TrEMBL record:
Family note: Belongs to the short-chain dehydrogenases/reductases (SDR) family.
Protein's UniProt keywords contain Metal-binding: no
Protein name (record): Oxidoreductase
Stretches that traverse the bilayer: none
Molecular function, one GO term: oxidoreductase activity
Keywords: Oxidoreductase
Length: 255
C-alpha cells in the first residue's frame, strides 16, 4: 500500500510535466491535494496534461517553459505564485538524453545541448524556486538526476556529466538553505518506462538490454515509482532528509 500524503493548501511546480515521470508526479501531487503548475516545452501536451487534472477536480495550471531560458523558468515560478499564492514544492524534472557517443568523438553542440537542459535548466528552475521559498521561509525541492549521476557508463560522458552536476548543485543548495527551512534533495531514477526510454529501447536495443541486465529487480521502473519517491522527499516524513541523491533504480547502483 502506498503512503497517503496530505498536501492540501500547498502548491507544487513540476518541470517536464507533460509526460513520463513529470506527469506521473504532477498527478500524484494533485491527488494528494496540492495545486499543481505543470511546466513543459510542448504547449499542446502541457495544456492537455493540465486539463486532465482540472477535469478530475484538481487545481492545475499548464505553463509553456523552456528551462534553458532562465527568464522562462522565472516566469513559471511567477505564474505559480500569481495563480495560487505561494510555492511549497518543486520537482525539477525536465531533461533530455544524448545519443551514445565515443568520448573522443563527442561534439561540443551535443555536450552543450544536454547540459543546457539537464544541468543549467535545473539550476535556473531551482534558483527562482529558492527565491520564492526564501521569502516564505519554507519549501522542498527535488531535482532529477539519474543513475547516470552516480556511475559512469561507456559512450554516456556528456549525459552523465550533466547528471553528476545536478547532484553537486543539489548538495550545495541543500547545505545553504537547510538553515532557512528549505530542503533540497535529488532522485536518481534507473531505467524507467517512459516515452524517452521507449525511444532508446528501439534505437539502442543492445545497449539497453545490457543496462537492464544490471537491474537486479529484473524489470523497468514505473514513472509512478519515481513520483512516490518525490512526494516522500517533499513530505513531513522526510523532514530530516537534506541533500541526498536517492537511487530509485531497481538495485542498479548496488553493484
Amino acid at each position: 500500500m502506498n503512503p497517503q500524503y496530505h498536501f492540501e493548501g500547498q502548491v507544487a511546480l513540476v518541470t517536464g510535466a507533460a509526460s513520463g515521470m513529470g506527469l506521473a508526479t504532477a498527478r500524484a501531487f494533485a491527488q494528494a491535494g496540492a495545486a499543481v503548475v505543470l511546466a513543459d516545452l510542448s504547449e499542446q501536451a502541457v495544456e492537455k496534461a493540465a486539463q486532465e487534472l482540472t477535469d478530475a477536480g484538481h487545481r492545475a495550471l499548464g505553463v509553456v517553459c523552456d528551462v534553458t531560458d532562465e527568464a522562462q523558468a522565472a516566469a513559471a515560478v511567477d505564474r505559480a505564485v500569481a495563480a495560487f499564492g505561494r510555492l511549497d514544492m518543486a520537482f525539477n524534472n525536465a531533461g533530455i538524453q544524448a545519443p551514445p557517443t565515443d568520448a573522443a568523438d563527442e561534439t561540443a553542440e551535443n555536450f552543450d545541448r544536454v547540459n543546457a537542459v539537464n544541468l543549467r535548466g535545473v539550476w535556473a528552475a531551482q534558483k527562482h524556486e529558492l527565491r520564492q521559498m526564501r521569502a516564505q521561509g519554507s519549501g522542498a525541492i527535488v531535482n532529477c538526476s539519474s543513475l547516470g549521476g552516480l556511475v559512469g557508463l561507456p559512450e554516456r560522458a556528456a549525459y552523465h556529466a550533466s547528471k553528476h552536476g545536478v547532484i553537486g548543485l543539489t548538495r550545495s543548495a541543500a547545505v545553504e538553505y537547510a538553515p532557512r527551512g528549505i530542503r533540497v534533495n535529488a532522485v536518481c531514477p534507473g531505467t524507467i518506462d517512459t516515452p524517452m526510454v521507449s525511444g532508446m529501447l528501439e534505437s539502442q536495443a543492445d545497449a539497453m538490454a545490457e543496462i537492464l541486465k544490471q537491474q537486479p529487480i529484473g524489470r523497468l521502473g514505473r514513472a509512478e515509482e519515481i513520483a512516490e519517491a518525490v512526494l516522500w522527499l517533499c513530505s513531513p516524513g522526510a523532514s530530516f532528509v537534506v541533500g541526498v541523491a536517492l537511487p530509485v533504480d531497481g538495485g542498479f547502483t548496488t553493484h
